[in-house]
Every structure is written in structure tokens, then in C-alpha cells.
Amino acid sequence: MIKMRSWLFAPGDSERKMEKATASNADIVIFDLEDAVSEPEKPKARTRVASFLKANAQHRSKLWVRINPIQGPHALADLAAVMPAAPVGIMFPKPRGRADAELLDHYLTAFEAAAGTEIGSTQVMLLATEMPESMLAIGSYAGVPRIVAMSWGAEDLATALGASDNRGDYGGYDFTYELARSLCLVGAAAAGVAAIETIHGDFKDEPGLRKRAAAMRRAGWRGMLAIHPAQVDVINEAFSPSAEELAAAQEIVDLFAANPGVGTIGHKGAMLDRPHLARAKQLLASVGRS
């Protein structure tokens, strides 16, 4: 089972930062050709990323690329540059809905065929809330090929909405952006893919990151984006079940197995039913245990 706990960004115009990210404990590394690269530097960055991918093929299973939006002038050039180097996945920013995701699938199929890569092998992660249209289409992705994960973002959405800020005095996100987070979680579940929490912007705030990551995992998120290697180990720990959690889940599974056909069982002062069993099985499956 592919781990998707930590997704670490590295700017595509910096070989040093790409090397550092690749050497980290991140489950997935994303070479960024979009926000981290200025407009004049994009051609050089895509060439640099392609060269790095080819030189580090042994790490292919964790190396992704964030391309530019499909509705802009750079996405096809990004794909033409990096697809011959066979990244394992593409992070897809600002999709406006299902049609954009299906168009990307067609493009990837063509580039895979041209490069001699296995058709359908390039995975996709959607940044699914960055446009107003995206918010309204977030439940439309079930069955779209290649999609394995969805995440959300608040900054581009705030810009698109004309907001001056997206946080209140209390430090949390304003309602619209909390709605984006919730819709992403629900949309990912509807599509049957992993929900990945957005970044924690202050990479020096380890206590805040630890608290937030734990809360997001409890809510159903499967991993989190990272902007600095220092965040990776905290995220990996937060999104990994503890030995105590696994033991408790196994106990529930074994209890129902010993009582076949029973819908509810009293256990340690609580009543357990089938949803408890399903969650226990999901937790065990997340570490490869049935």
C-alpha cells in the first residue's frame, strides 16, 4: 500500500531544494512548476525538473510534479517536458470540474504513449477548491481515471473571491474556507480517494502543526501537505496509527469475528455496532493488515 501521509513541496527552479526534499522522509515529494516559480523562470524550471527526474529514477515512486493550470498557457509545455521522465504523479491545480480532470487524463494518455510509459500509470492529485467553480464541482470526480487524492487550498480561493484575508482574529479560517476544507473531505470520500489536508504555513510552529495534524487525521484526512522538510516527521507520526490504536482495532475485529451475525456487542462499557467494525477494519487496512 502506497503511503500518502506527507506531501512535501520543493520549488522546481532549485536543484538543491529538490535534492533535499527527495532525501527527506516524505512519502511523496512534489516538484512545483506553478506558484513556486516566477513566470520568466518557468521554461528553465520545467527543464530542470525533467533532468532531475531522469537522474533520480530510483526514487520515481515518490516523485510528483505540480503543473500549471490547464486553462493557462503553461500546462501542456509542463507535461511535454516532464512526462518523458515519467513522474509517478501529477498534482493538478485549479481544476474547474470533472471536464478538466478528464481532459488531463487524455493529455496524460497521449504523453505516456509517446514516451513508451505504461498507459494509465501516472497518478493525479487534485487541488480541488482553488476556484469558485471548483467548489461547486467538488462532488463530480467519482470514476475519473487516475485520481488518487484530493487536497484543498485557501489562498487562491481568497484571491478569486476578492477577499483581503481568509482568517479571523481567532487565527482559524473564516467560514468559506472551512467550508472548502469540509467539501474537499466529503468530495474525496465520494470519489473514493485520499483526502489530504492543506499546508501549515508556519514551518517553525511544531506544536501547532502536531495539534492540527492530529485533529485532521481524527476527522478523516489521510495525510497533509508540507512546505519544509522539518514538518515531515511530525506529519508522518500524526498520520500513523499508534500501537494502542491498532491493538484496539484488532480487538474489535476479533470480537465481531467471534460473534458472527451479531449486529451490536457490548464492550468495555460501550455498545459497538457495524460502523465501529468498519472503522476498525479501515484502520488495520491502512497499515496492510486485514
TrEMBL record:
UniProt: substrate binding residues: R66, E130
Domain HpcH/HpaI aldolase/citrate lyase: 5-229
Binding site for Mg(2+): E130, D156
Signal peptide annotation: none
InterPro entries noted in UniProt: Aldolase/citrate-lyase_domain (IPR005000), Citrate_lyase_beta/mcl1/mcl2 (IPR011206), Pyrv/PenolPyrv_kinase-like_dom (IPR015813), Pyrv_kinase-like_dom_sf (IPR040442)
Superkingdom of the source species: Bacteria
Sorted UniProt keywords: Lyase, Magnesium, Metal-binding
Cofactors named for this entry: Mg(2+)
Entry-linked Pfam families: HpcH_HpaI
GO MF annotation terms: lyase activity; magnesium ion binding
GO term, biological process aspect, one: oxaloacetate metabolic process
PANTHER family the UniProt entry points to: HPCH_HPAI ALDOLASE_CITRATE LYASE DOMAIN-CONTAINING PROTEIN, LYASE BETA SUBUNIT, PUTATIVE (AFU_ORTHOLOGUE AFUA_4G13030)-RELATED
Name used for this protein in its record: CoA ester lyase
Species whose genome carries this gene: Steroidobacter agaridevorans
